[in-house]
Amino acid sequence: MSSPSSTTAPARVPAAVLAGSAFAAVLVAAVIGGAAAPLAIGDPGAVVRWGTLLVRVVHDLAAAATVGLLLLAAFLTPETTRTNRRLTATRAAAVTAAVWAVAGLVGMLFTFASLAGIPLFGQGYLMQLTTFVWDLEVTRVAVISAALAAVVAAGAAVARSRAAMAWLSLLAVLAVLPLALAGHAAGAADHDVAVNALAVHLVGVVVWVGGLLALAVMRPRLGDDLGVTVQRFSAVALWCFVAVALSGVQSAWIRLGSLGGLATAYGLLVIAKVTALVLLGYAGWRHRRTMAHRLRADGGDAAAFLRLVLGELVVMGFAVGVAVALARSAPPVPDTAMAEPSPAELLTGYPAPGPLTPAAWFTTWRVDWLWLTVALVMAGVYVAGWLRLRRRGDAWPVYRVVLWVLGWAVFVYATSGGPGVYGRVLFSAHMVMHMAVAMIVPLLLVPAAPITLALRALPSRPDKTWGPREVILQLVHSRYLGLLANPVVAAALFFFSLAIFYYSPLFDLALRTHTGHVAMMVHFLLSGYLFVWVLVGIDPGPKRWSPLLLVVILFATMAFHAFFGVVMTSGTELLAADFFTRLHLPWALDPLADQQRAGAIAWGVGEAPTLILALMVAAAWVRTDRAEAKRRDRQADRDNDAELTAYNAHLAELAQRHRRSAEAEADRREKP
């Protein structure tokens, strides 16, 4: 067994190894890919060109460290009465988040100087910066991300509860997402696919790199709990590896265009990143196969673990540096605008589909990789949980599995099939997609009881840390869900958000922008799921209202929904007029007539789900009455029908009182 001195290294060593590797890699990769080459027109100078790369390395490493430290504090490491690991990691995250925020703002200054072709703080720089910083997407998202990082820094400096650490880790991950709207992805011809791939890639990288760095930095404080913490992180790292690999392949293919692009300088850097990913995958396999188990059995293997982690950090730093240089290098497929784009391509980023025929609803497809991935993951995780129960000998109704998979299949059709394709350019098709996602899909998903399955399939953690099962329990029993799951609140969210969305600029924003479209889809699905869940859900959660009140809530909501459809059907003012009038589809209906058809769809499609929901509420009512009757029968068997005996005794006492009262009244009348 190694001595403690041989296994204890200063906490700053892993960070220095990661940073040193990243800085060295970005310098070499920038020379190979030309990321810092002088610009032919409007060159801002060497300070801006090289400063942009170096500051971005600091930014990315600080973001990863922040996410990793907060995830370690909230979900991975055990705590005892003699340790203070979570608070230590959270306070360290406050420092790295502050560095992240500052680096983000400094990087924004360099980026604007590069775009404007002016040296940093050169003549006219500040005036142009204050004028255009919010108008340019690349600088706007940098400011938003830096602001969120500053909020994380402030929160981590004062947070003491595990719940606060968990929310801060989520906010830190969200702060990374706006960066996907900048860089090569934002200028790609297939904009939505590129942005989605980059967003998944960024999240996977910061969680993976940051988690490993946090493990290495906090290793001396973990002691005997190092093994279990490594084992938990290994599972997270596997998901990150898959996400980074798949999204990286998709992003690289968009930028390379063909295998011939690998022969370019950009392609060589891509090959270098792929090589690093393969090496990291092998190291992760070593962690899962041997190292984590050996650490749990014998803490003396901490020295071998440290050597392996430092090697991984070298490779990760190399990959981060190459990625930063790639983001500033010219790809084989340039970020140029489409030649003579149609109005539909200008407004949506996609070519206009052909005429909408009955067959086109089923034959027209354009895969939305984001929602297809979400559907496959959700269906796959559910089926895996079901199989785990079967292997354990526990029963789970097959019809629930069928409902869950069918629900996500309908979701894929609504987002990638005819409704999703034509919903980009036709109000009526958009409403079909909306009704499918918000009303039909939840009717299939909610009866599948995914929360109940997760609670039965997922293992619990004996050391009181928050694993997936514990997080689910925290959420379903939280005060926030208790508020949202109030049937009145859920119904209000379902209906009023519908009206606000369509009769405000949010509708136009969702039609024109990728971010707005994604937010719209998330809201449609979650608000519909919440509404159906509070009515007929069987998963654990806040106390259910009586079926009679739920029926009242259901029909009141559907009455408002029908009113919304009638108003839209009879309306004479075109919604999102600037968008629909500029499409100029030769085969489409008049935009106002199509809007009125959308209102009729909203009105008509809501009838069938309402009837199904009413029947499901009635069935739940019957089941509740039967369960209550069985409960009372069992209680009667246990106590010899004490409740009925007490009730009969109460009736007998009332009858006796009545007789005495009647006799007294008769005696009173007989007296003169």
TrEMBL record:
Cellular compartment(s): Cell membrane
Chain segments annotated as transmembrane: 12-41, 53-76, 97-121, 141-159, 166-186, 198-218, 230-253, 265-285, 305-327, 369-389, 401-422, 434-459, 480-503, 515-536, 548-568, 600-622
Membrane topology classification: Multi-pass membrane protein
Organism classification: Bacteria, Bacillati, Actinomycetota, Actinomycetes, Micrococcales
Keywords tagged on the record: Cell membrane, Membrane, Transmembrane, Transmembrane helix
Stretches assigned to the Copper resistance protein D domain: 229-326
GO biological process: copper ion transport
Organism from which the protein derives: Pedococcus cremeus
Domain of life: Bacteria
GO CC, alphabetical: plasma membrane
This protein's name: Putative copper resistance protein D
